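Subject: for your reference before the review

Hello V.,

The reviewers asked for a structural picture of the protein, and I figured it would be easier to keep everything in one thread rather than splitting it across files. Below is the amino acid sequence we used in the manuscript, unchanged from the supplementary table.
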Amino acid sequence: MIQMSTFIAILLVALTTYCTRILGYVLLKNKTLSKRQRKILEVIPVVY
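And here is what came back from the structure prediction:
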C-alpha cells in the first residue's frame, strides 16, 4: 500500500504541473502576440 506522504507528494506534483501549464493559457488568452513572441513559442517543443 502507498504511504500517505507519498500520495500527497504525487498529488502536489500533479497540481503544480497542471497549474504551470494552464497558467500560460490564462495569461495569454486575451493578448495579441507580436511576431517575435509567436516565433519564440513556435520553437518550443510540444510535449503531450
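For the response letter, the relevant points are probably these. Residues 4-43 form one domain. Residues 4-28 form the longest helix (25 residues).

Happy to draft the paragraph if you're swamped.

O.
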